[in-house]
Amino acid sequence: MSLKIISKLMYIVMTLWLTFALTLVSMVHSNEATSEQPSSQAEPGTMSDIHDIKPLVAVPNELPWVVILMVVILLTILLSTFFYWRRSRKLSEIRDVEVELPPEVNAHRALDQIDPVDQIDGKMFYFRLSAILRKYLYERFGINAPEMTTEELLPRILSLGIGSELQDGLEKLCRGADPIKYAGASSQVQQMASDLAFARSFVDGTTVNVTSDDPSNAGVSMPVEADSSS
Predict the structure, then answer these.
(1) Is position 50 within any domain?
(2) Residue 42, domain member (yes or no)
(3) Peptide bond between residue 102 and the one before it cis (omega within 30 degrees of 0)
(4) Which of 93, 105, 149, 153 is placed for a possible disulfide with 101 were both Cys, Cβ 3.0 to 4.6 Å?
C-alpha cells in the first residue's frame, strides 16, 4: 500500500471522526438547552406571562466518554494502518531483493518455465524465448534489446565480443523466430528443443564465474572476452 493511499484513508477517517464528534456535541448541547427551558403552560388563575424560576435539571454529560471511545477507535485504526504499511514495505523490499539476481540466474529460471517444449504452443514459445534472451542481453550487456527490432538488435550483437559461434547462433534463432511469431509460420518441436538448448548455451557461454577470496565477489559473473581466433 503506497503512502498516497494511506494518506487518503487517514484523511477520510479523520473527517468521519470529526463529523461524528461535532454531531455528538451538537446533540448534547441541544439536550441541555431543552432541559433548561421553562414550561409554557400557565397554572389556572395566574398570569400567563409570569413564570416561577425552576431549578436547573442536572443532565448527565456523556460527551467525555464518547470522545474517549472515539479516540481509542481512531488510535486503533491508525496503528493498524501503520503496521500494515510497515509489513507491506518489508514484503516489497524482499521482492526487490529477489529480483536483483544475476542475469544468468534469471535467464535460466525463465527458460525452465518453457520446458518441456512439447507442452507449449510454438508461437507462444518463441515469443517467450525471444523475450527471455532480450531481457538477458539487457541485464548482461546493457543493450536495450527488449525495445529493439531484430534488424536493430543484430548489429549490436556483433559488437559484444562474444565469439562468432554464439553470434551466428543467436542471429539464426532471431531470424527463425520472427516468421513464427509474426507471420504464423509453423514450428517443429525438434527445432524448438534445439533453440531452447542453444539459449541455455548462450547464457552459459556469456557467463564466467569469478572465484576470489573476497566474499563480496562470490557468485559474480562477467561476460566472456572476445575470441581472438575469430
Answers:
(1) no
(2) no
(3) no
(4) 105
Does residue 116 have a cis peptide bond before it, meaning omega lies within 30 degrees of 0? yes
CA distance 107 to 221: 13
Whether residue 201 is contained in a domain is answered as yes
DSSP structural state of residue 213? S
Give the Cα separation of 135 and 105 in Å (integer).
12
Residue 132: its H or E element: helix 122-141
CA angle (214 as vertex; 211, 218 as ends), nearest 5:
45
The residue segments making up the domain with residue 83 are: 3-34+58-99
d(CA 130, CA 106): 14
Over the chain (230 residues), the average pLDDT of each successive run of 10 is 62 69 64 52 54 62 64 75 75 62 93 93 95 95 93 90 91 94 92 95 80 38 41
Cell 493511499 -> residue: 5
Distance from C-alpha of 29 to C-alpha of 31, rounded to nearest angstrom:
5
Q: Are residues 81 and 129 in the same domain?
A: no
Provide the number of structural domains found in the chain.
2
